[in-house]
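Worked example 2:
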Amino acid sequence: MICDLSAGRTAHPTPDLYNSFAELAVAETEGVHYQIRVIERASAIVIVAPHGGRIEPGASEMAALIAGEDFSLYRFESLVSGRRLHITSSRFDEPRALALVGASEVAVAVHGRADADDPRTVWIGGLHLELRDAIGAGLERAGFEISTNHHMQGKHPLNICNRGRLRGGAQLEMPRSLRNRFRGDVELRQAFVAAVRKALVDAFPLGLGTEVREPRG
């Protein structure tokens, strides 16, 4: 069921060390401190994980599974522990990300969040409300708990999920405990991936350049 969560139930994280990718690139070295993975496909949809690797563990892997072999994929992955390389989504301006998202109709951003006192609910957001709600409904049918009432709304127009050609996308925030369960439970992981993919294909039936295939586990 959809949970009613107040905005203050999860503590806000500490401020970012870097306010832009340009600042980060001056101090950090690609291939040493972070890596960027880009796959451009003939698709209207791009799946992005701007806080992958060791920033939000499991987010990058889930983004790749959702993308499968059909959707474009962007992953920024920190190779150092902690949030040092975290750039908030409304300031995430890495050039390869902006180029791929800007060439796509819509972006879906895959994130991880702290559990706080809610280790089960997937928080969904973004400016494309119909897509947000379609993904939420699909996840509910698959047995997951979702909420649109939280402080991670993803509604800033410069949020990376909203920088596609439609100027609106969707954002998924998975709690840490759920991400941990995904690692050891293939069936649960595949149910989540299939629900999100079905919502995307239903919303953009002409958005694929190739035949839709079920994601691989």
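The chain has six helices and seven strands. The two ends are 26 Å apart (CA to CA).
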